[in-house]
Design goal:
By secondary structure, this protein is α+β, with helices and mostly antiparallel strands. The protein folds into 3 domains: about 90 residues, DNA-3-methyladenine glycosylase AlkA, N-terminal domain (TATA-Binding Protein, 2-Layer Sandwich); about 120 residues, Hypothetical protein, domain 2 (Endonuclease III, domain 1); about 45 residues, no CATH class. The protein is about 45% helix and about 10% strand. It contains 14 helices and 7 strands. The strands form 2 sheets. It has a 5-stranded antiparallel β-sheet with strand order 1-5-4-3-2, with helices on one face. The radius of gyration is 19 Å and the shape is globular. The chain starts with a strand and ends in a 5-residue tail after the last helix. The model has no long low-confidence stretch (mean pLDDT about 95). The structure holds a DNA duplex.
Amino acid sequence: MDEEWIVTPPFDFRQMLRRPMSRPSKVTVIDPDTPSYTRVIRLRTRAVPVTVMGKEGTAGDPTLRLEMPDGLSSGERVEVRERVGRIFSTDMPVQGFYSHMRRYSEWSGLIERLHGLRPIQDADLFESVIKVIIGQQLNVEFAATLVERLVDFGGETVEWNSRLLPVFPSVERVAGWSYDDLRTLSFSQRKAEYVIDFARAVIDARIDLEGLRDMSDGEIAEVLMSLRGIGRWTVECFLLFGMGRRDLMPAADIGVQNAVQKLYGMERRPKEEEIRQIAEPWAPWRSYATYYLWQSLIPVS
DNA sequence: GGCCAGGCTAGCA
DNA sequence: TGCTAGCATGGC
């Protein structure tokens, strides 16, 4: 079943797919030619495959086409649209961000070059937390490898257009694993503990993931940072990638620091506190600024 | 081989 | 409160 979706411009689907494309993943299948984005989304009722296609793929005429299985209830279709809207930040107030950041001369070139870029959010809150934990202190390539191994180990797939789409493991499944299971995938002992303990906290209802949506950034930080293995950087990345909150600046992030150094032509890499100071006037748009900084680091293919 | 990578914890002053 | 050694693996 297909649906059309007209997004308010600017919206550059191809530009947005560069990040997931730069790190090929089995869970998210990108076809740069169509262009399209395919993955399984866990709804409240079941896991459903979805393909999102850019009809034109230009910033000026942004139309998406959604392809999803027949036989979904109307409620499920609504949920799919909500989730896809979140993933592609369709409600992002792009112009507000641009008019704010145009005040800073360093930003004019970047905003021009990435015109129509919107953050791609993670499709699932649990998946988001786990991926951020795995990404702690590791280079992104290896972190992506660990995520792939986790997905393979989970072994769950959904058939879609005559191919098998791997699905990110469910909370239940991860909570049932042992630390040694993840050790065999080259997780460090600590990372294995952080990942599995987090899944168990969700299963034990010590953490209500969907309930986080009603909380402020600060409240979410307090809840999550009470768990071992979740610090400030992890919460900031989760709020940004997982929850789509708009004013986060993971200033301890090496990637952000490298990008600011490059954008501002600095001699050495700025430290966390310097980043926070530089970014202070970017409020309340710091999440988008962070995302643009990260995107600026992707090599032009 | 050494250093670094989209950090966090525990232990110490 | 603030600082830092240690963690563990792969890439360059």
